[in-house]
Design a protein that fits this description.
284 residues, transport, transmembrane, transmembrane helix, cell membrane
Length: 284
Amino acid sequence: MEPAGFALARERSAGGPSRKGALLDRRPGAATRFFTHPVTLRIVSAAALCLAWQWAGTVPISPAFPTFTETMAALWAMLADGSLFAAFAITLQPLLIGLVVSAILGVAVGVAMGLDERAEWFASPIFIVAQAAPLAALIPLIVFAYGIGLTSKTLVVCIMAMPVIVLNSFAAVRHTPVSLTEMGRSFLAPRRKVISRIILPAASPVIFAGLRLGCASGFIGAILAELLITPTGVGDIITYSRSIADYPSMYAAILSIIVFSVVFIEAIEQAEVILFRPEKRASP
């Protein structure tokens, strides 16, 4: 009969029950998985921010800085009387129009620049300068040319959002792996199929990243337009609350547009996962 020590050593070297048990013992427990889950970490991060906000308002670090509870009370009051919903209905008009125009034109121009060097030579200097320049300085010129209506506010959203979308779309198409395009050509695929079935799917993650960044810049442009052109919508609440020293309402309006922009950008990311990222959709 073989000694027990030799049998145990042979079982461990063969990956038997002892090794399997050790691997099972190393798996994190339910509590560890819960506290390290991304959703839990986000909730903890948001709670820490709220506590820090409450502490900073209680100290206070400034007479114009309200506590978190005062801000939430003002936010609830604006939700209850419907003033915040009415303000968002006004703010979203130029924002959505500008974002739709920027997304369609920006992706189209960026893809054209990535596919054709002549289009790149013609358009890339314009958008590189537009991304680097302080575009908020152009708002007085836009007002002088188009007035203080919906057109000027939509243009502000477009000039803030489009450069980011164009340049990210251009970089996504230009950096498509050469091996993929060569594979398509080796199978005698026509150019339009190489673009639609190889280049665009491979470039979609970076294009959607540009859309998210462009939407964030578009939200900035919408609020700048309402603050600098004419106070309407959420910008009107911010301006009026500041003028009468109603700081909780002012911070509540700012918080509401920040939360809305974060939710909007997260929705774009989820659309990307559903449409173009099956590997992430299948992951737990």
